[in-house]
Amino acid sequence: MANDLRAAALDSKAWPFEEARKLLKRYPDGAPEKGYVLFETGYGPSGLPHIGTFNEVLRTTMVRHAFEALSDVPTRLIAFSDDMDGLRKVPDNVPNQEMLRAHLGKPLTQVPDPFGKFESFAHHNNAMLRDFLDRFGFEYEFLSATECYTSGRFDAALKDILRHYDAIMGVMLPTLRKERQATYSPVLPISEKSGIVLQVPVEVVDAEQGLVRFEDEGETVVQSILGGKAKLQWKVDWAMRWVALGVDYEMAGKDLIDSVTQSGKIARVLGVRPPEGFNYEMFLDEKGEKISKSKGNGLSLEQWLTYGPEESLAFYAYREPKKAKSLHMGVIPRAVDDYRQFRAAYPAQPIEQKLGNPVHHIHNGQVPAATLPISFGLLLNLVGVLGEADEAQVWGYLANYVPDASAEAYPELARLIGHALAYHRDFVAPTLVRRKPDAKEAAALKELDDKLAALGEDADAEAIQNEVYEIGKAHFGKEALRDWFKALYETLLGSSQGPRMGSFIKLYGVANSRRLIAEALA
C-alpha cells in the first residue's frame, strides 16, 4: 500500500504533491548535509495570531506531509517569531496603550506586556501563538528571533552580511525611493542609550569582528552587531535566516512577492540557494476588497470556529490557494457541506483520486470513517423553522431522519448542531422573511398539503420528494421547476435558497410541514 501511495503521489496533480516534488528535485541524492529537509513559517508578534497564521502553517504542513509520502528523508517544521522587530505602532486591540507608546521603537521582547502576564509583549504573543498552534495539533518547533540573535546562533551569518555588505546594498538600493536610499542600512543597530532599533546608515568597520560605525543621538558610535546588539532589515533578515537555519521550503502571500525576490537575491549573494515555495493569493471580503487587520473587514478565526468546525476551515484553505477567495460568513455553510461530501466519497475512491481529494491532505491520509448523516444546510433550514430552538429540540426532530439520533451515537453531528444554532442566531435569523404565495403558488401548495396528508407521517424522504417534483411539473411545467422550489423556500422557510424538500419534510415531520403550509396559505 505504501509503495502504491508513493507511486501515485509522484504523479498526483494535487498542489501539495506538486510542491513536495520541488524538494525531491532540490535533493535528488537524498537527504541534505544537515540530515533533514527544513520547512519554515514566519510570524510577526506585533499582534495576535489570526486566520492567516493558521492558513500558512496548515498549508506548509500539508506540503510537509506530501513530501513525507514521497521520500524517507526526515523533515522538521520551524514556526519562527520575528520578535526582535521594533514596535512600530500601538495595536488598537490591547490595553495600556499609553504605556506602550513610551516603548515605541524598542524590540518587541523589550516592550512590557500590556496584559501584565508575561515578561514582554512578544512573550505574551509568542505564548498565544504556541497555544494557537497546539490547539490544532500542529507538529512544529518554535524559534524566537531574539533567542537566535542574543545566543549567537546568527553571529556567523551576521558576519557574512557585513562581508557582503556592498553587494547586498547593490541588491536593495535600486528597489528604494531616493529619500530612502540616503538612510537605508541592511543592519539596524540597537541603541545602548535608548534601547531603540535604529534606522540609521551604518559603515562596516570590521566584518570579522562584527563591528559597525553609526550616529546615535549626535554621537559617533562603534558597536558590535553580534549577540543581539543589532537586527537586520526585513528582507535581509529573511535571507539571513534562510542561510543560518538552512531553510528548504517557505511559502508567502502574494503581497510578499517582491520580498521573496529580493531575499532570494541576497541569499544567493551569501552563496546559498533560496528555499522552494510558492505565493498564495490573499483572502477578500464580501465586497471583493483585500482583508486588512486594521480595517477589521473579513472573518476572524474565532468567528469561523463559532459557526463551523475546523475541518471546514482547513477544507476552505486547501482549495485553490493561488486563487483569491472571499472570506465572509456566507462561505461557511458551503465549506462545511463540501467537506462532508468529499469525505463521504473518499473510501470508495481509487488511490489516485484519494490523493487529489482535499480530505486526504486535511487528515494526512487518516480520514475518519464515520459519515455525517445530514447536511449542514438541512440542519440550518430545520433550525430556521424552529426559531428559538435548543439542542434537545433539534435532536428530537433528527429522530425523524436519523436512526438512533443522539450526541453519543453521532458526536460530530452534535458539534454541527451547536454551529448551526449559533450561525442561525447571529447570521440567518435577522434575514428570514416568509412571503405570501401568489395564486398559482397557493394552488400548488394546497395540492402538496393534500398529498402529504395522504402519505402520512411514515413516508420516506424519496416518496415525498417525488410528490413535490410531480406537483411542480403539473403547476409550473418541467422547464420552470426552479420557480416552484424557489416559491417553497420563500413561502415556507423565508429564504431564497433551501434544501431538498423531501429530506426537509421528513426531517421536520409531515404534520409540522403541513402546519407551515397552512401558515403560508392563511
UniProtKB/TrEMBL annotation:
The keyword Zinc does not apply. It holds the Pfam family tRNA-synt_1f. GO terms for biological process: lysyl-tRNA aminoacylation. Its EC number is 6.1.1.6. A motif ('HIGH' region) lies at residues 45-53. It is an enzyme of class 6 (ligase). It is found in: Cytoplasm. InterPro entries: aa-tRNA-synth_I_codon-bd_sub2, aa-tRNA-synth_I_CS, aa_tRNA-synth_I_cd-bd_sf, Lys-tRNA-ligase, Rossmann-like_a/b/a_fold. One of its GO terms (cellular component) is cytoplasm. Its main location: cytoplasm. Signal peptide: none annotated. Keywords: Aminoacyl-tRNA synthetase, ATP-binding, Cytoplasm, Ligase, Nucleotide-binding, Protein biosynthesis. A motif ('KMSKS' region) lies at residues 290-294. It catalyses: tRNA(Lys) + L-lysine + ATP = L-lysyl-tRNA(Lys) + AMP + diphosphate. Belongs to the class-I aminoacyl-tRNA synthetase family. This is Lysine--tRNA ligase. It comes from Edaphosphingomonas haloaromaticamans.
